[in-house]
């Protein structure tokens, strides 16, 4: 290391502007080899900093993209849903049995179709809590879904109702006897073409109910399409 001697003013409470105190200070500066090492280190650190900035920038871009939220229970694989429904002894009943249970055993028909369909026609005394609703939010993911629906000519895209279980709980106790119904009904029964049955909105709703602690959950086999077709009692709110 080389040195350079310099004279600087030393502050002092006893000194005045006319008679300042001075102090000799020796300044050192690095040798040529040290300067080269410092230069390399500076370049290396600059490169690392630049790399970090690029990574951070990429990270920000990724996070701002339309990424799908984590999978909800309703989006679980149908095979897993079916296993849980069978373990919890969720029973399927046809429309005439459902009507009898409603009249004689105080069962409640829970219609999980969209509200507009429920108002048009539904079984007497049924209650409506839609399991899917029109897309409400405008996040990047929601916009992407709207565009995807629009691509197929669907301008009223739906999403899972995040308040489904909460809405049911506000109307029915956990020990209520419930028959869950939708349009098609679906089935848990295996067949040659459908070895694991067929998923439906009512079966998804039944799955969410048993996960939420409901203990008397039944499922309407054949759905409300069959109910209407059989000419069973219907009311409308139109």
How does this structure look, described?
With 238 residues, this protein is of the alpha/beta class. Helices cover 39% and strands 18% of the residues. It contains 8 helices and 9 strands. The strands form 3 sheets. Strands 3-9-8-4-5 form a 5-stranded parallel β-sheet. Strands 1-2 form a two-stranded antiparallel ribbon. Strands 6-7 form a two-stranded antiparallel sheet. Strand 4, helix 4 and strand 5 form a beta-alpha-beta unit. Helix 2 (78-87) packs across helix 7. It starts with a strand and ends in a 9-residue tail after the last helix. Mean pLDDT is 76; it is low at 1-50, 55-65 and 149-155.
List the helices and strands and how they pair.
Blueprint: E1 2-10, E2 21-29, H1 32-63, H2 78-87, E3 91-93, H3 95-104, E4 108-111, H4 115-120, E5 127-128, E6 132-134, H5 140-151, E7 158-160, H6 164-169, E8 177-181, H7 201-211, E9 216-220, H8 223-229
Parallel strand pairs: 3-9, 4-5, 4-8, 8-9
Antiparallel strand pairs: 1-2, 6-7
């Amino acid at each position: 290391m080389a040195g350079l001697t310099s004279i600087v003013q030393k502050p002092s409470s006893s000194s005045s502007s006319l008679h300042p105190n001075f102090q000799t200070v020796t300044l050192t500066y690095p040798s040529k080899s040290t300067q080269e090492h410092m230069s390399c280190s500076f370049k290396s650190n600059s490169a690392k900093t630049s790399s970090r900035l690029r990574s951070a920038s990429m990270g920000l871009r990724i996070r701002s993209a339309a990424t799908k939220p984590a999978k909800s229970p309703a989006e679980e694989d149908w095979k897993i849903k079916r296993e849980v429904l069978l373990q919890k002894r969720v029973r399927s009943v046809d429309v005439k049995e459902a009507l009898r249970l409603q009249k004689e055993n105080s069962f409640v028909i829970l219609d999980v179709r969209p509200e507009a369909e429920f108002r048009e026609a539904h079984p007497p005394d049924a209650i409506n809590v839609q399991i899917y609703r029109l897309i409400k939010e405008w996040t990047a993911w929601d916009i992407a879904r709207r565009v995807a629906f629009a691509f197929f000519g669907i301008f009223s895209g739906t999403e899972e109702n995040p308040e489904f279980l909460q809405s049911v709980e506000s109307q029915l106790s956990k020990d209520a006897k419930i028959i869950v119904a939708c349009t098609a009904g679906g089935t848990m029964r295996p067949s040659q073409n459908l070895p694991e049955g067929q998923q439906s909105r009512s079966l998804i709703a039944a799955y969410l109910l048993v996960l939420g602690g409901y203990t008397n959950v039944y499922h309407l086999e054949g759905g409300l399409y069959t109910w209407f077709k059989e000419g069973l009692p219907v009311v409308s709110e139109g």
